[in-house]
Amino acid sequence: MNAISMTNSKSLMLFSGRGYPELAEAIGEYLDVTVTPQSAYDFANGEIFVRFEESVRGSDAFLIQSCGVPINTWVMETLIMIDALKRASAKRITVVLPFYPYARQDKKHRGREPISARLVADLLKTAGASRLMTVDLHTDQIQGFFDGPVDHLWAQPLLSGYIAEKYSGDDLTVVSPDSGRVRTAERWADRLGGAPIAFIHKTRDPDQPNQVVANRVVGDVAGRTCIVVDDMIDTGGTIASAVGEVLQAGAKKVIVAATHGVLSDPAAERLSTCGADEVVLTDTLHIPDEHRFPQLTELSVAKLIAQAIREVFADGSVTSLFDA
Q1: Which of the following is catalytic: 10, 107, 108, 202?
Q2: Per-residue pLDDT of the chain (324 residues; tens, 9 = 90+)
Q3: CA–CA separation, 73 vs 128, rounded Å?
């Protein structure tokens, strides 16, 4: 006998960082897979230690990490977990980042600036990640930064489905908060049966981050229910200004919809007082109680991510999840 024959079966294992373990557990419930137990803690000087309590050898490992606040801690923990999986002989490591960190730094606006979104992709690959899965990237070009397969999931069907059902009797207009998001607004308009679109013409001071001056609304919003859409809300300045401009232009009511609720202070205050009837976000990031407000509605992406993980594990088609 000059060879050993063995029939191997694939093994899906789920891992979670400490950034938002509740989301990983919800994904595990849809997959009927428990999150692999681990020891994870910080040393006195801030160093992170991770050790998995079960063998991961030969597994198809899916590592879920939600990089909220403090974002640099969770990015570093993700890299350490990837390294631990690689050194423990996991067969394939898929990193699931519902919110891709540093996504806004995807190009150089001026000289001597970094492209930090590319740096994050390089770090993930160097650490040992085989595949990347994420939700609603700030720009599609970030997919090309990672040297390997990227599954770019869309939360838009989840958000637009909720809006279409709840406001089915209203005359809807999709509003982009700036000219750069018009393409996103067009996708929303298609999902909402060809609703008209509008956008806010604004200026931004490049030397002052998170400082926006809104100018005027381009498009018909008078007497209509306006859906202001964006990929993320950080301090809420852009969205609050857009809502104010749309209401001033005669909108009947304004709904805000976005995928990622970063909600850095003073976002909760701005969103609760800007005049929006409802702010619809997904749970790609953990929203603590102190950042919640009465108008907030949170939709779960756990089922969407679980479906994508199942397709990747079964060598199926992730694109088919969005064909409709």
Answers
A1: 202
A2: 576 666 678 899 999 999 999 999 999 999 999 999 999 999 999 999 999 999 999 999 999 999 999 999 999 999 999 999 999 999 999 999 999 999 999 999 899 999 999 999 999 999 999 999 999 999 999 999 999 999 999 999 999 999 999 999 899 999 999 887 888 899 999 999 999 999 998 666 666 666 655 578 989 999 999 999 999 999 999 899 999 999 999 999 999 999 999 999 999 999 999 999 999 999 999 999 999 999 999 999 999 999 999 999 999 999 888 865
A3: 18
Rounded CA-CA distance 242/202 in Å is 9
If DSSP codes are grouped into helix, strand and coil, which group holds residue 6? coil
What whole-number distance in Å separates Cα of residue 279 and Cα of residue 268? 10
- Of all helices (H) and strands (E), which one includes residue 32? none
Q: Which is nearest to 234 in space by CA: 202, 271, 199? A: 271
Q: Is 202 noted as a catalytic residue in this protein?
A: yes
Q: How far is CA 5 from the centre of its chain?
A: 43
Q: Is the whole model's pTM more than 0.70, yes or no?
A: yes
Quick one: which H or E segment has residue 204? strand 197-204
Query: Peptide bond preceding 266: is omega within 30 degrees of 0, i.e. cis?
Result: yes
Strands 212-218 and 197-204, by their bridges, are antiparallel
Quick one: which of 156, 313, 178, 322 has its CA closest to 241?
178
